Amino acid sequence: MSLYRNTILLFLACFFHGILFSQLVNIESRRMQTDSLRFVLKSDLLFSYSDNDGAYLLQIGSGLATQWKTPDYNGILYFIGNVNLARSKAQDFQNSWFFHLRYNQKLSNFFRLEGFLQNQKNELLSINVRNLVGVGVRLKLISKPGVKMYFGNSYMYEIEKSNAFDRQFYNHRNSSYLSLSVSLAEGRLDLTNTLYYQPLYRDFGNYRVLQQFKAEIPINKKLKFSGLFNYFFNSITPQGDSEYSSYLSMGLTFEI
Asked: Domain spanning 2-255: which CATH class is it, in words?
């Protein structure tokens, strides 16, 4: 019975798993394509508690994404934050947070500059803490009704900490991505596919890859149903081997 209950707890925790599944997070999927709005806010909140003969599961998940545009609409400042906790009597299945602040300056219809700060923590990953600062460019390769494609390249300085191996890393890393968004059925289905590649400058054999596919179906003007599939690969971990992970999630997004 104990094994059965732990299996159920683990399944539920994985079902509500957020974007903090790996060290590499897809910021591209969190951008807001709102040409005429200067301020946008998206938020979601999950809270649940269950207790079966002393085997309990507490889950708390919250997310916030907000965007503000300058009066000339050429500058965009946005913030993303997530907190996730999934705890049972025996262990934590999830204990993490993620915060990202980014500024985007449009110089032309094709070319943009970006700067960003990021802080994330996940007690269950081999890299428990990751802090970084970066600057780069963002290019709009295709901009047609219903189809958009972007390419980005950035320099990042990151500080990472691994409690399990009692090590701290100071890295200069490159980050490149290619993102394609397609709107079908007159906006009733939005699809986005993004590929990230992040090698170290001193060793291109030490890299991370994230492939993400996202689908959104509007329910009304403020509510969307979304599905997300991620595949993450890390060529070298603190232990010296490689690792990969994948997950599928579905949920609702509220927007004002």
From this structure: mainly beta
